[in-house]
């Protein structure tokens, strides 16, 4: 508890032992989501949405009913990666999330725009409200694992997701550079403030594998993911190669065709 605590939990974003108000928003009555996992990054451009997509793929391959809530309202990319287009169907009670060819349910702002290149020029509270509505106003049905693709940073949307959704853990995506590792600490600290455990670290663009000899070349410096995991007491880690095949598949809406043995092993540890 802060020394400046007013004992009015409705005006406070801190998660402490004295909290008396539950801010978790109720899911739609036609939804039963068993597990919610957030995928976060301290900065943009580290491949967070790709990792979210591949984790959802792995969960689906393991027989789980899977969904993705795209909380990156101003930079949504999930529908394109899966090749999903068109607006969701809706009735008077809720919207129905489209399904990918593999059966992953998803909801994203890009599915509600006239054109997927239209910008979303909204202020933070409005963006946060839209994310909350993706949870409360969508008929998700029976879902074993929902992955929430967060926007980069530690702003309004992350606070909304942590407070409004029953997030049971997060996966932090990073790259080998020292700057990004420093930013990772911000994400870890925010998760700690909100009492949300870190399930694992995924280091993207960790290395390039030589197509001739198989040697792993660390073009952005030596991997630090295991060092980070040891520092924060996290057991699950994955190192993903810099692979243009994956990028091309995502651009063409074929992310479900990708096999990622590194993330398959990681998913086995956290699911």
Structure overview:
With about 270 residues, the protein is an alpha/beta fold. It has one domain (about 25-270): 3-Layer(aba) Sandwich (Rossmann fold), CATH 3.40.50.300. The chain has eight helices and ten strands. The strands form two sheets. Strands 1, 2, 5, 6, 7, 8, 9 and 10 form an eight-stranded mixed sheet that branches. It has a two-stranded antiparallel sheet with strand order 3-4. The longest helix is centred in the last third of the chain and has 16 residues, at about 180-195. It is globular and about 60 Å long. The two termini are about 30 Å apart. The mean pLDDT is about 85.
State mean pLDDT (0 to 100 scale). 87
Specify the number of helices: 8
Helix and strand pattern: EHEHEEEHEHEHEEHEHH
Which CATH class is shown?
Alpha Beta
Main pleated-sheet profile? 8 strands, mixed
Structural class by secondary-structure content: alpha/beta
Shape: globular
**Which superfamily, in CATH terms, is the homologous superfamily?**
P-loop containing nucleotide triphosphate hydrolases
The first-to-last residue Cα distance is 32 Å
CATH fold-level assignment: Rossmann fold
């Amino acid at each position: 508890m802060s020394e400046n605590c007013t004992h009015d939990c409705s005006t406070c974003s801190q998660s402490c032992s004295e909290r008396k108000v539950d801010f978790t928003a109720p899911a739609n009555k036609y939804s039963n989501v068993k597990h919610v996992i957030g995928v976060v990054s301290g900065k943009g451009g580290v491949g967070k949405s790709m990792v979210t997509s591949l984790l959802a793929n792995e969960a689906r391959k393991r027989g789980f009913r899977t969904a993705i809530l795209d909380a990156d309202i101003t930079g949504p990319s999930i529908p394109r990666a899966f090749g999903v287009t068109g607006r969701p169907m809706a009735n008077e009670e809720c919207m129905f999330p489209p399904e990918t060819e593999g059966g992953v349910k998803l909801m994203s702002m890009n599915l509600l725009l006239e054109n997927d290149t239209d910008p979303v020029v909204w202020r933070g509270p409005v963006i946060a409200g839209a994310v909350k509505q993706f949870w409360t106003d969508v008929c998700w049905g029976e879902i074993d694992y929902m992955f929430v693709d967060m926007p980069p940073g530690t702003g309004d949307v992350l606070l909304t997701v942590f407070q409004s959704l029953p997030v049971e853990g997060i996966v932090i995506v990073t790259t080998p550079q020292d700057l990004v590792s420093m930013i990772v600490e911000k994400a870890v600290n925010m998760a700690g403030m909100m009492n949300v455990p870190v399930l694992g670290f995924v280091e993207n663009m960790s290395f390039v594998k030589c197509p001739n000899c198989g040697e792993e070349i660390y073009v952005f410096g030596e991997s630090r993911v295991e060092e980070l995991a040891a520092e924060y007491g996290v057991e699950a880690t994955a190192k993903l190669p810099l692979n243009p095949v994956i990028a091309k598949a995502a651009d063409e809406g074929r992310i479900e065709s990708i096999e990622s043995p590194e993330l398959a092993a990681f998913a086995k540890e956290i699911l």
